[in-house]
Design goal:
This protein is an all-alpha fold. Helix 1 packs antiparallel against helix 4. It comes from Selenomonas dianae.
Length: 64
């Protein structure tokens, strides 16, 4: 259980990465492209959550 929770928590750092991605895009691309990326933040959060759950599930298969 501890290994599964550790994998989930460490891979859940994707939420901080979304802010970094948006900040980089704001400085590198025009405002129209930045708006497209900012409009899809909810999909980015959802995919980060699903990847974290998938990583924890795979860890759970090997630990238990």
């Amino acid at each position: 259980m501890q290994a599964v929770m550790t994998v989930f928590i460490t891979s859940f750092a994707n939420l901080g990465t979304i802010g970094i991605i948006l900040g980089c895009f704001k400085g590198l691309v025009d405002s129209e492209s930045n708006t497209i990326v900012a409009r899809n933040v909810s999909y980015m959060i959802l995919s980060g959550l699903l990847v974290s759950l998938l990583s924890a599930a795979i860890c759970g298969l090997f630990v238990w």
